[in-house]
Amino acid sequence: MTALFLCIIALSLTGPALWLLKPHRSHWFAWFAALPPALVAFWLLWQAPAIVGGAALQETFAWAPDLGLTLALRLDGLSLLFALIVTGIGSCIAFYTHYYFEHDEQQGYFYLLFFLFMASMLGLVLANDLLLLYIFWEGTSITSYLLIAFKISSKGAVEGARRALIVTTAGGLSMLAGMLLLGQAAGTFRIDELLASGDLLSLPQMPWVMALLMLGAFTKSAQFPFHFWLPGAMAAPTPASAYLHSATMVKAGVYLLARLHPAFAASPFWFWPLWIIGGVTMVLGAVSAIRYRDMKAVLAYTTVSALGTMTMLLGFDGDAAALVLVITILAHALYKAPLFLMAGIVDHAMGTRDQRQLAGLWRTLPAVAIIAIVAGLSMAGAPPTWGFLAKELLLEEYYHLWTDVSPLIGGIGLVAVLLMAVFTAASIFTLLWEAFLRRRADDPSPAHLHHKPSFWFGAPALLIALTGALTTLWLEPFQPLLSSAAGAVAGVEVTASLKLWHGWTPVLIASLAVLGVAVLMVALRSLPRRALEAVPEQLTGVAVYDALIDAIYRFAYRITKLIQGGPMAPQAAVTLLAGAAVVLIGWLQVDLTRLPVFEVGELLLPIELLIVLVAIVSAIATVRATSRLSAIISLGVVGIAVTLFFVFYSAPDLALTQLLIEVLTVILLVLVFFRVKPDPKLATRDTRQVVRWTIAIGMGFFGAGIVLVNQLYQVGPSISPYFLANALPIGQGGNVVNVILVDIRGYDTLGEITVLGLAALGGYAVLRSPQLHALRRQLVKRLPRAMGVEIAPPAAAAKNNAAQQAVDVTYEAGSES
Predict the structure, then answer these.
(1) Distance CA 245, CA 427 (A)
(2) Which helix (H) or strand (E) holds 393?
(3) Which of 23, 41, 21 is nearest to 90 (CA)?
(4) Mapping DSSP to helix (H, G, I), strand (E, B) and coil, where does residue 294 land?
(5) Which residues, other chains included, contact 122 with Cβ-Cβ below 8 Å and sequence gap of 6+?
(6) CA separation (Å) from 415 to 302, 419, 513, 514, 589?
(7) Whole-angstrom distance, CA of residue 52 vs CA of residue 78
(8) Is 70 helix (H, G, I), strand (E, B) or coil?
(9) Residue 80: which of 60, 54, 61, 62 has the closest Cα?
């Protein structure tokens, strides 16, 4: 059965199909775009009863069996939850995208990137192999980079995309190193086999593995101090921002940590980094959000806070924390997606997202106001929404930890959660008040309605918002799915028993108090805004990142200037001496007493010794020659000596190739140096002579050392007998070298030929470019005159060149002046 693979392939092909069909021509393409992810979501729901019952759907395809590499996918409770979020919300955003890019010819290209991004994320959450997970991980990085930089003319979009790519890719490389260490230590890259092993923490590599994996997850999920790239990603078009922030890429790091949580949760090295970094990110993102007036900026920083909450919960080992985690993931997707879509509708209709220019949108855009208020109440944690349920369970978890388990950790965590909840609610209440409910904008030139949105434009956002606000009234259908997902995170069976009302508990009173304080902060919002605006710009993550990048560029410039800033000889000397130093270090590790001792006669025949002497003498004559012609001839003799070696060792094809190259090289050198004037011989200081002799002797030892190592030491059995025995059966040829080049490694040779062909075409295009032709004409016309040489025009053209002579006289007069 290959249904999981087919789901990923179907989403991958939907984007190119829409791109070719040019969907901006008709509104019917909105339904066509939403159909494939909706069908995948319905198929996943069809599989849900079996999955939540404890079964797991697995598919494996042999990729490179000899290397033990397989394409393995697995659908269990955790991957089912994430896959439903990816495809369900993806279907709504795909429908919304058509109206956002209404009549825009770039709509098809956006769909291409969007569905490739969706397929990469679906593959990531279904992957049952670490290496396959990494491939899809990087797929999300590349496609998100292209989505963020979709507005290529916007400098902010390009900078935000580059920042996101550098940070997430650097973290991805560290994660790959951790995956390789984990796979090598455990003997498998299959995730289900790793989780079933049960003794990973006993391996000595595990601290490094956890550190590298957490670094990759922190960068992807925008944890402190890598959180700064996520607000910059809001420069992407709103459909991409809504999808990236609510359903996909930013939760990839959370998914990785949740997937490996059962294997590492018992380690203190797992708890403390996740709890501390997640807690700091949670509070920092919520506090920062109230500072901004741009709708998407407010939503982006609250996303950072929510991701910190999820990461902090992953530090705990227990089924209760796992259940809170999966509910938080679901709640965040159901309120953050419609809020981002709402911001896009407001921007589309009013021409701005700046809250200072907005007011009274509940009268101008009443349907959009409903979306914003419903989703905003869920984000603030007001009953009876999923946001309320997630906040209640989070507060209850820390309240229980404070009163019954660890007063210190529980107390600090409870204060941090209350602080986060207050600022998150205050931020969204401020957005709702300033943009929708107040009567007058701060800006003296408020925005006006430019384009009234249609019903279908806001329908996807309204559907998601109502789902997140009202489905909590009937929790029974959701409990098996949430229990299954939480069980996959905790590594044990989890039974959810969710209720909205537990009586007047201290947690409920604290939750209601949070909403009251948040309303008060809306009235006093200028105070925290002024305090946050007073923070020096140099302390922000973007400023630190830019300073680090600038420092790297300065360092690279200085190194380049030091190594490559002078004449060619010192540059070559640095490279050559570095190679010689490597060989010298290698030789220092060799036990010289174990080297075989050979007599010269055992290694070389008399005729071969003669050829060696001729080559040595010719090389010395080349560097000591007083004329160029003598040096060229001596260099040619060195090449001929190498050709004779090929002949004696029965390699006629190599000998012929070497001979042709030597002949052509001699001819080209003679032709070139015949046209070039000899350089005056400069006096050389004794110190430079010593340096040059040192380089020459060092390179001599370098070459001799490489040859001796190849001759005396052999790593593994020789591959020559295999090629000699199989050249004729495999390649149908007796020439072993040709068989290797053309048959055995034919694709490599084809690639090399392709590269050379492209280089030749590029060179031809450059030489044929109009700019070079114009430059050549100018040089032909002016260079001889500059050198004092007069070129007479052809006789046929001399009769009609009066105008040209006038131009030449003017040019000569200007040159003399």
Answers:
(1) 17
(2) helix 386-400
(3) 41
(4) strand
(5) 7, 8, 11, 40, 83, 86, 87
(6) 18, 6, 13, 12, 59
(7) 10
(8) strand
(9) 54
Strand stretches in 2-127, DSSP E: 57-64, 69-75
The token pair that represents 475 in the structure block: 């929790």
Return the structure tokens found at 82.
């994430």
Structure tokens at 786: 């500059």
Backbone angles phi, psi at 74, to 5 degrees: -150, 130
Joined tokens for residue 648: 């004696």
Taking the CB of residue 55, how many other CB atoms lie within 10 A of it? 12
Residue type, 288: S
Q: Give SS3 for 719.
A: coil
Residue of 313, 291, 131 whose CA lies nearest to 221: 313
Closest to 43 (Cα-Cα) out of 76, 1, 7, 82 = 7
> Rounded to an integer, what distance in angstroms lies between the CA atom of residue 518 and that of residue 379?
12
Three-state secondary structure call for residue 675: helix
Name beta bridge partners: 118. Answer: none
812, with CB counted inside 10 A (0-12, 13-18, 19+), is exposed
Q: Would you say 356 and 266 are in contact if contact means Cβ atoms under 8 Å apart?
A: no
Burial 648-672 (b: 16+ CB within 10 A, else e): eeebeebbeebbeebeeebeebeee
State the Cα–Cα distance between residues 335 and 486, nearest whole angstrom: 21
69 contacts: CB under 8 Å, gap ≥ 6: 63, 131
| DSSP code of residue 592 | G
Q: Mean pLDDT across the chain, nearest whole number? A: 85
Whole-angstrom Cα distance, residue 19 to residue 22?
6
Contact residues for 316 (Cβ-Cβ < 8 A; gap 6+) = 265, 271, 275, 397
Q: What is the largest distance, in Å, between two alpha-carbon atoms of the chain? A: 110
SS3 105: coil
The tens digit of pLDDT for each residue in 219-255 reads 999 898 898 888 888 888 999 989 988 767 788 999 9
Token pair in block for residue 240: 């991409």
Is the pLDDT assigned to residue 394 strictly greater than 50? yes
Q: What is the pLDDT of residues 723-748, one digit of tens each?
A: 878 777 776 666 777 788 787 777 88
The answer to whether 27 and 101 are in contact (CB under 8 A) is: no
Is 67:311 a contact under the CB 8 Å cutoff? no
**Beta bridge pairs of residue 127:** 73
> Which token pair is 246?
């609510």
